[in-house]
Amino acid sequence: MIFSKTLNNWYSTNKRDLPWRQTKDPYSIWLSEIILQQTQVAQGLPYYSKFVEEFPSIFHLANAEESSVLKLWQGLGYYSRARNLHTTAKYIAQELNGEFPNTYKDLLKLKGIGDYTASAIASICFNKVEAVVDGNVYRVLSRYFAIDTPINSSKGAKEFKQLAQELIDKNNPAEFNQAIMEFGATQCKPQSPDCSVCPFNKSCMAFNTNRINELPVKIKSAKAKKKYFNFLVIISNNERTILEKREGKGIWQNLYQFPLIETAKSLEFEDFNKSVQNHHLLKESSFELSLYNDDVIIHKLSHQHLYTKFWIVKVNGSLNNGIPINKIHSYAVPILIGNFIERFNFD
């Protein structure tokens, strides 16, 4: 009781003015929570604003083309979240007449909605006593109670969820959940929190035992795999290029990319030049090959690091099966490709 009262008092004077805090609308809360998963507010806020402007209701989002949703999402990463967002929007609009379920259990059944998001919507929109546990909450609780259980273990997930559920303000679950997340984001920060002004510094076990930098505990993930990507940026005399849609369940599903050659290691010019001579897109053409980036671009994903080279292929002749270069910005592409397009300046 003292914990929640202290937290709510802190929140009342320190909370940030954010657009999704001005509403109880499930669509707005859901959208903000999906965007802010693994994304900081400063980065996520412009995306939220763009989404609510482009898709002001669940029906607008449901009726959109997936490619439009992915294009708007471009730069946030974790594109499965955008695909799930679209799938769930269509289900709610078409099967539930646009009405969100109002219980944690029913929200949990929706594609792309896990424990955290279901708890957030249930508490904020429907005043259900469901505690949220995200990275910020893990950090606050592990430090305050000096808990050594790894937060990315099944035991940790269960332990912290139970503790958060015990602490939540039963009379005002929405305020408590938003307060503890805000506290972790702005006060009990991952690095160098200012504990001197923390309202919990007298009772925080980590602070009083000098363990702030040790907590929370996290099991180290497996070492990321290295992959070597070579993109063929094909440019014809009639100002066309080629983008291919990625199929399957791997990274960047349904996004577009330049034709890709994946190799076992990073290749130098002569070796790569030999390998592309018989490429199915080029074997009938004469072309000039050059390497765009002298230094390999390392694009880090959660489980793999992509060592990337962009090869400029100037084809002598027309490219009738390509797309006009001036249309390239209309395609949804991974941020790695998007950054190249901006630098290369096709316009």
Question: Overview of this structure, please?
Answer:
About 40% of the residues lie in helices and about 15% in strands. By secondary structure, the chain is an alpha+beta fold. The chain folds into two domains: about 1-215, Orthogonal Bundle (Endonuclease III, domain 1), CATH 1.10.340; about 225-345, Nucleoside Triphosphate Pyrophosphohydrolase. Strands 1, 5, 6, 7 and 8 form a five-stranded mixed β-sheet that branches. A two-stranded antiparallel sheet has the order 2-9. Strand 7 (about 295-300) and strand 8 form a beta hairpin. It is elongated and about 75 Å long. The chain starts with a helix and ends with a helix.
How widely separated are the two ends?
Answer: 61 Å
Report the CATH topology name of the largest domain: Endonuclease III, domain 1
Q: How many structural domains does the protein architecture include?
A: 2
Net shape: elongated
Topology pattern, helix = H, strand = E:
HHHHHHHHHHHHEEEEEHEEEEH
The CATH architecture of the largest domain can be given as Orthogonal Bundle
Keyword list:
Endonuclease III, domain 1; 2 domains; five-stranded mixed β-sheet; two-stranded antiparallel sheet; Adenine DNA glycosylase; HhH-GPD_domain
